[in-house]
Amino acid sequence: MKTRSRRKKIFFPLLLVSTLFFYSCKSEAELAFDITMQEAEKRLKKGDVTFILEAEPEKMREITYIHPSAPFYAALLMKTEEAAPKLRTINLFMTALSSPSTQVQEAASHELFAFMMDDPGLAASLLEATGGAAPPPLKAAVLYFTGDMIGARSASSGDQLWDRAFYLLSTLKLGGDVSQELFQFLLDGTVADVHTWTYREASEWEGAASVFNETERWAIEGHFETARRSYGGAIGTFRKIIAQDHTLFFKNPALIADLGRCFQYAGAGAEGVKLFTAWDNTMQEWVRTKKEWEKTAHARYNLLFFAGRMERQASHWSEASDYFTRSLVFAPDAEQEDACIWYILDVAFKQSPEKAIPLLRIYANQWNEASYFSDVLGELCQAVVASHSWTKLLEIFSCIRSVNGAQYADGAIIAQYAYIIGRIISEGYMPAAKAAAYTGLDGSAGSFFRLAYEEQTASFYYRTLSASRLGKHVFTEQPEKLKAAEKKKKAKKNDEGEAGQAGLLDFLLGFFNYGASRYAFPYIQRSASALTIDESRILAQALADDGQYYESIRLASSYMKTKEYSFTFSDMFLYYPRPFYAIIEKYAEQANISEATLFGLIHTESAFEASAVSSAGAEGLTQIMDLTGVEMAERIRNEGGPDYLKAGLNLKDPEVNVHIGSYYLAHLIGRTDAVLLALLGYNGGPTRVRRLRAAEPLLPDDLFLETISITETREYGKRVAAAAAAYGYMYYNVKMEDISADILKKRRL
């Protein structure tokens, strides 16, 4: 072991120094790793690192011939190679520290940091190799593990969690009194590896007895248990604090939130409400006598808010509403204010929609983030449509959209209400005069359809159906023309010098350029807040080109939801790609289903991830359950088709899965006599959907869809219809509004 450690100490500094010297002196090199540089680059781009594994250690520096950042991407590939020696992977990350890219340096530093946390013995070698010049937090960690506490403290910026941990621990070991700062550090925010490691490190220090007292240790351990969802164990730990010094909770409101979650999820809500009410009374008296409002506000918010959640869990609606209303006064920020209002509305809705509507009049102009309330407004919409309470629908609409144009809900939910109101007017369920009186619009169905149609943030489902009702088109140009116009506009924009953060973008594109594309998405996610929309769009395209459609769709969806986003048609090609098109078109034709409908189903079910497996066990592109797959495979075989059961049913095989999924959808269409009902049955089960439809025999299919109480199934039908409309328009020269309308017609595929 000593020989190996000594070999590390000698090899690391020689590697880094020789790499820097070799690269700075390199002219036009013809060979790298005993093959041509072009061949080495070609292999690396394919993700092949065997030429690095087979090379002598002293040739490792030649990886920089390909590109100065190439060692980082090669090292990522080496990490998953079973035959790759750990030391050689570490050496590549070390070489990457000399890259001119600060993003590569930081990423390599984090990788080396992870290696060192697993094996602190590497610290001495890393210190020698970097000459003490490693980026933070690697530098602070290296100095800490080599025993240089003064150096570790000065190297820690304190801005990031690991930096903060090394600063506090090194200060502590130098004799500084930072025990309270450490205590708060361990309680603040989401529990991560840095917190558990810091607590262990502080506890194992020879002076650990003086760091935390007994109740503080219980508090930290209870906080960690809560994060692990060990609610029963955490309650036991917290009860010890309650018995010894319950004021610790008053001083640390985060602990009240932990205790509230434990009471709620461990089934001890009654005990929790009683305790939290008593504590709030104590703090109320404290405020009355000592006038210390600000010191108690956050704690009282948590006491009342979690008492409300416990009462809500017990279906004690009036009590829950009272607690949430009282907690709103103490909400520490806008997010918590919205949380209180959401629960107030939710509790009222759970009693009856009639109770929620008056509260909307009170709170709609008080909430901060309109989209936060879309789910409760969506559920409220379902309830009033299901009960045919058309007047209440108008009342809600008037609450969330005032006549002077101010909107208290996001545009998508307003478009939903507008379309439904337009439909109930057009079906004769409500006179236009009544709609006009409530809403300030002219009362005609068309005025509501126009509102939904013109709302750019509305889903394609409501926009296309509204367009169909108005005799309009969502898009008037062919998709390729629109995409070409955007491309020309973007080229002009780039010529004018509007560019983003090239360094970060180049770093992320490097994953695709040097064979490490399968590692790219987590790095892209971590960088999301620093990327412009244009940069995110470029990366979404790179993911799609690499066959990572699920990840590409997720990224496109993410930036398309931002407030800064403005629609571009090219994003539709990213959000609605067409992989596996030969297979999908083949089996859509066989099943007599439109290609657009089958693409819409697969986009909604799996986002084209062939290996997808749901929590319920559904598999593959069309997310088929095993029993359904076997039944449909038997039917296909009995009708003279291929025998998918002979060698064992493989639902992750794209061709097998699409054949069975399309056959099953066609089977459901035959049973329900309607595409929409078949799609709903595909998600929620055909028997259940038939029962729901039988209970609403007179409503048109689009209004029936709004009555379905199962949120997942209701939204599934809309998403498939919207996706089908997009696919029909983009790839099959069918107007979006025609596809949406066809799905709602009987026996139209």
Describe this structure in words.
- With 749 residues, the protein is mainly α.
- Among the domains are: 2-135, no CATH class; 479-568, no CATH class; 581-743, Lysozyme (Orthogonal Bundle), CATH 1.10.530.10.
Task: Please provide a brief summary of the model.
Helix content is 68%, strand content 1%. It has 749 residues and is an all-alpha fold. Among the domains are: 2-135, no CATH class; 479-568, no CATH class; 581-743, Lysozyme (Orthogonal Bundle).
SSE blueprint and pairings:
Blueprint: H1 2-25, E1 31-32, E2 35-36, H2 37-45, H3 50-53, H4 70-79, H5 86-96, H6 102-118, H7 123-130, H8 138-145, H9 149-155, H10 161-173, H11 179-187, H12 193-204, H13 214-227, H14 231-245, H15 247-251, H16 253-265, H17 269-290, H18 293-313, H19 317-328, H20 334-351, H21 353-363, H22 374-386, H23 390-400, H24 411-426, H25 432-439, H26 445-454, H27 460-470, H28 479-495, H29 502-513, H30 520-526, H31 533-545, H32 549-560, H33 570-575, H34 581-591, H35 595-606, H36 626-638, H37 654-672, H38 675-684, H39 686-695, H40 701-707, H41 711-732, H42 736-743
Antiparallel strand pairs: 1-2
